[in-house]
Amino acid sequence: MFKTSPLRKRQLYGGIIGLAIGVLAIVFFNLKSSEEYISLGPMNAGHDDLSCVTCHADAKGNLAQQLQSNVEFAIGLREKSVDFGTQDVTVKNCLECHDRPNDRHPPHRFSEPRFKKAIKKIDATTCITCHSEHNGERVTVASLNYCMNCHRDLEVEDDPIDVPHIRLIANEQWSTCIQCHDFHGNHAYEVPVKLNDTIPMAVIRDYLNGGRDPYGDSKKHIGLSEPEWIKLKLQD
Amino acid sequence: MKRIEENPLLIIAVLLFSFMLLQSCGGVPEESTKEMSSNNVFSVSEVLEMVSKENDVTRTLYTKAIVGKGKAQGMKFDEDWRKDDVEAGPLPALFLRGVATSIKKGPVPLGLYLGSDFPVNAANKFEGKQADLFKKIKKDQEPQFFYDEDQELHTAMFADLASAAACVTCHNKHPQTTKDDWVLGDVMGATTWQYPKDSLSYKETVDVLNSYAKGTVDIYVQYLEEIKAFKESEKPSIGDKWPAEGKYLPTPEVFLDSVRKLSSYETMKKLIAAKD
Fold it and tell me: Is residue A169 part of a domain?
């Protein structure tokens, strides 16, 4: 039954080798230690220890069902397409670990109609606008003048700093904001009152690129580690 | 033997078999929009009015019975209540912000925001369409409904009145106030509510109401947690009693129970009418 023609041996060995390579590839790419080879790029600062599955959950259904659903959608037999392979990563995924009650700029606030103009310039409703993953950095936003989109009319009563906020704004010195205030307000940090005492821009840039935290080690909130996140998931 | 590409019947058979194999799995289950909308019994405006009324009752209760009476007992309420060095509870506007945050964390796609034409925090100032509609609200206190095409969300705005003396005095005296002559009964701002669908089923309506109720409990629990961490201030006793009786605060269950007693009649009438 399993006799093979001597003239077909090449195809048989080819088939066996191909199957073996396929099985090995499936095993290899499913190992946690192989995830770095699948990843689109290096993980951002603080995310080095995370597995793919912490953000990329399996999509609903098996691959055949997903394929069928999307083919049906393409030819108009279905109202909505479905995720293929893994679910889209959304702000909810980020908040599972990073949500905190005292966030100074929580993403949901920017869903309000009055921020419509601002979010056309910088979409603060989603984390990835500033924290695009797989870049090996902490903050990936191109320009640090984003505060200008909402705070142009800022007036500080009894302004404590030597160069008043109103003058910094008039001079369009928007990068000075981050030299005193971290965007999410997550540091117990004594804000300086002299502009010369603020954190130098080079140090800030290094931090945003993944370097040392210049606002200090005293953080109000620490994101969940993967084991903590898994524990939370299992409780749900 | 014929090669496979020379045998069209075999190709058709293979394709047919693959198609049947794929089809036999069935797709990912889909909820049909048409089927779902036939079960819808409330318009989005009706639901947002219902939840807005629940909000009015809850906020009034919190403002008068917790903040107003609590202050008289020496309890503190502060806009910086979450700061480590501040031992205080949330002011009513921040209580509402807490509710909104809790709703956003949940699965119900309901949005809740507070704004004004003279806000204490400049970021809460209405702009564009909201500012125009708020002018109307100030005149007649009637709710305004519109569809936000950019966000694809049904949006409703409801008047937020100065219902307690605490609202007026606090806003008038605030160092960053942009208006210091508020009086009781003024339309101080408006709550904005958003929902993605134009009509809701009975279950979805109950989910919206429950998500709001859960939000009030969540923020109230956070306040009680904050009290646990007080180092210098006297901690009120938490139980069945309210600040009107002394240095007491109700438990979250007692608080929610009171909200339900005050608000449920109108809401229940609508829900029961729809069920019938």
Answer: yes
User: What are the residue ranges in chain A where pLDDT is below 70?
Assistant: 1-2
According to the model, what pLDDT value does residue A163 have? 93
Residue-range domain boundaries for chain B: 42-275
d(CA A33, nearest CA chain B) in Å:
31
- Residue that is written with structure tokens 């912000």 in the block: B97
Q: What is the ipTM of this complex?
A: 0.72
- From the list B29, B122, B192, the residue facing A113 with the nearest CB is B192
Indicate yes or no: CB of B26 within 8 angstroms of CB of A112.
no
The confidence score (pLDDT) of residue A131 equals 95
Alpha carbon distance A197, A195 (integer Å): 5
Domain count, chain A: 1
Tell whether A56 is covered by a domain: yes
Whole-angstrom CA distances from B227 to B85, B86, B91, B236, B273 are: 12, 11, 14, 8, 42
Contact in structure between B234 and B74 (CB atoms under 8 Å): yes
Residue A12 is assigned to a structural domain of this protein:
no
Tell me the per-residue pLDDT of B116-148, one tens digit each, with 9 for 90 and over: 999 888 778 888 889 999 999 999 999 999 999
Q: Is residue A9 part of a domain?
A: no
Query: Is the pLDDT assigned to residue B263 strictly greater than 80?
Result: no
Q: Virtual CA dihedral for A65, A66, A68, A69, nearest 10 degrees?
A: 110
Q: Which residues of B make CB contacts under 8 Å with A?
A: 21-23, 25-30, 32-33, 82, 84, 98, 100-101, 104-105, 111, 113, 115, 122-123, 125-130, 148, 150-151, 155, 175-176, 192, 194, 222
- The stretch B235-255 carries a mean pLDDT of 93
Structural domain range at position A220: 38-235
